[in-house]
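Two proteins were folded this term; both appear here.
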Amino acid sequence: MANLGAVSDHDVAARLDLAADVQRDPHRSDWFGLRTAAWTGNACDRKRNASACGRTSASCHGANDWLYVVVQEAVWVDLANRVGPDVGVPNLATDPRVATIGERRKNQQLVWTLLNKFAEKHTKRELMAILNPLDVPCGPIMSTQDLANDEHVRGRDMWVELDHPQRGKWFNVGMPIKLSASPANIKRSPTLGEHTEEILKEVLGYDGGKIESLKGAGAFSAPKKVAA
């Protein structure tokens, strides 16, 4: 809408840079956790889920290491032939319990158990390297720390360092929607009264004498406490 407004006002279209995954893909990243980390300084635990449509979060080797996997009909045979021998079921692709999509739905827990058994031998990146050549849809479920240190995230200015005179240096989440004609500038919050004089002079047009008079009258300070 902001881009359309710019076209209407100036007859010039701004380049829109928008990454959908950066906004809201809970399966592949932890942006809520990153925002929470920015607010509290604490990382969030991730949750896992599964569905009857063939999606699950595979538990990989390493603490709290997950990969989101979609077991599609088109890739089942190649996936089963790769996973089966390593988990003690060499004929997994044709095993009657999971050979068809209908049976896999009925025995979904078995599929996830075997997939997790296979995944626990690998990190999420190693597992991706195995599944990608098989065309199995998958993606890392990134922790708060993963996101904060991700080269792509930092390259898109989605994890921005700020310096506050009271809080000190800290990080905050950037703007996922980027317009070339009106870039967002992520700034720290102001301190109490930091811009009072600037607003009085530049917005209201008060001169120095009037500002000092108002200051002397206590217009810009908390009222004095009166003893009971």
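Next, the second protein.
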Amino acid sequence: MKNLCVRICGAVLLAVSTGVCAMPTLVSNGSGGYSGASGIEVAGYGAWNVAFRDGTCAEVYSGCDEVSDLYDFGFAAQATLAFFNAFLAGTNVSDLDSNPGLMDGCVSTSDNCLLLSPYAFSAVAVGNLRTVWAQNRGGPFELSDDAQTGAVGQSGPGNDTSSTWAVWTRQVPEPGSLSLAVVALGLIAAGSAWRKALR
């Protein structure tokens, strides 16, 4: 019974220390708005952070001229949906939904703001991208493929006040969290050793 308690406590500590229990949080830009969000649990991909970036696709995504500069569609779709569910849907609606201008890259006079995650070059029009996007102001999670919101060059979100790029980075546990993980693993090992000693 004690061994079971040790394992459960260890598992709980490990979960907390590796960020599994972290809540999604909007990141302040220091001017009353938001530069991104952290702790977004993306189904099948773990915990991620996202930054809202203005500019052209070429400026934001290492040239935006190769498929490797873009996101995998599966990730882009799951990450965008996770962001939408965390901040723009149901009981989780944040002030982003009523004030699109709070997102870096969008202006306060916009009636919506699209958070774009590019995943492929368009086969329809040269210079365009296919993007997965979440729209605030009560808008749905949707797929997009059009010149205004997905262009590689100057006609892209760099000049659009109602859209911003999503720059996704994997969330890395803080050093203190890693220490807790080591303690949790130590407790699990100690519990196993104690059980063996009782045999």
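The chain is about 30% helix and 25% strand. Strands lie at 25-28, 34-42, 46-53, 114-121, 129-135, 141-144, 163-170. These notes refer to the second protein only.
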